[in-house]
Amino acid sequence: MLGAMVIDGVDVPEDEESADHAGELLVRIADGDQVAFAELYDMLSSRVFGLIRRVLVDPSQSEEVLQEVFLEIWQSASGFAPNKGQGRSWILTMAHRRAVDRVRASQSSVDRDVRVGIRDANTQQEGIAEQVELRIEGRRVVRALRSLPDAQREAITLAYFGGYSQSEIAALLGAPLGTIKTRMRDGLNRLRQEMGVTL
Amino acid sequence: MNEKDFAELSAGHALDALSADDEQAYQQALAAHPEWEELVDTDAQVAGFLAEGAGEEVPPADVRDRLLAQIGSLPQRMPVAAASTPEDVVQPESAFAPEPVVEREPIVAGPPTEAIQAVQRRNWTRGLFALVASAALLVGIGWGVGSIMEQVRTPAQVQALEQIEAASDGQSATGQFTDGGEAEVHWSPSLGKVVLTTDDAPKIADGRTFELWFVRGDEPIAAGTFDPSDEVTALLDGDFKPGDVIAITVEQAGGSPDGKPTTEPIVAIPTA
Lengths: 199, 272
Known about the structure:
The complex is a heterodimer.
Chain A: E1 4-7, E2 10-13, H1 21-30, H2 34-56, H3 59-76, H4 87-104, H5 106-115, H6 125-134, H7 139-146, H8 150-160, H9 166-173, H10 177-198
Antiparallel strand pairs in A: 1-2
Helix pairs in contact in A: 1-2, 2-3, 2-4, 3-4, 6-8, 7-10, 8-10, 9-10
Chain B: H1 3-14, H2 20-32, H3 37-51, H4 61-71, H5 113-140, H6 147-153, H7 156-166, E1 171-176, E2 182-188, E3 193-199, E4 208-216, E5 219-226, E6 233-235, E7 245-252, E8 267-270
Antiparallel strand pairs in B: 1-2, 2-3, 3-6, 4-5, 4-7, 7-8
Helix pairs in contact in B: 1-2, 1-3
């Protein structure tokens, strides 16, 4: 459904099996191949660290989560199913989940919000979404997000890059939870269409 | 659950934004409807696209060294089929740190990562429930936008004070310290919370502390201590019953050792 995925800066057609470098390395790692592990780390650690930092902000906590993620990759590489998707997204999905787990621990979220300036007494909710948006770098992603209606972009940005739960976002924006859920669903649908255009 | 409801859960799941309850509902629904997997995969791809928006950042170099040192001694999880033969642990080739000299304690020593993660998830769930519960409460009393953020950042006693002031049954009463200065008690029966604030509280000797009491009938019930300062905001520990008298005594550091006041109250304020 996607025309192509961007793999390590190179546009590679999605259906080309050999394009999944990370997936191949994961298969080798599952066999205990430490060289493959080092290769995978060198290939994706900056990408994984960037994602964790975007969500968690705090450098030392991000470093801990990065380590946690790669240890989990080592331990559970056998759980990666090459026929089910790209190794790269398997890893990024895991990294995002671990970062969010960490940010939900309340002290982490306090630290995070202090760092990004969300906790200034006068900051309004638009400020929060904007602050979080400032942390998005990828041009294609920014462009795709901009094409969404504001309310959908806000919900998706706060969730994915801000690490906020749906309930938190509902409270943050003073909107019913059901509305936030619908915005996320509609937003993802539109984003999927946009991806076809922007990729 | 119909497909539309599931579609909303799937979106929230892909963004890691579901509450613990919703996550569970999502997992159950997916187990019951494997045909919905396709949507899940699609949403995961969109999330993967978003991940590319995070940009890259080179991590500190020592993380790599630590990881390579650690995996040498870290058993891998076997594929499910082989799980019944635990002795068949893969011995990795010794390309890196074949003999883990333990000069730096491996982070994964002790409980396996899985167990740690389970604990973390439990903690997370608890925290989340607390947050959700407070959020519902805040909505109930008509707090404005941004209150969740306020709430996370604000100390418990200040939060409690704000909640009491916003509660429909929030009340307050003031009393004078015997040596001048003023104490004000704020309470809400529905919240079951009492906060005491002071203005120009009396000076007391070093090594002494103020102790708070719920006085219920004749019985004083210890409600925590606070140290002297000009302006205090203290949340009383324990269960509040409307009609309690809130009292302060001066006690030794750490509070009265036997849980009974050893001195006369310097202020007492009834809550009814």
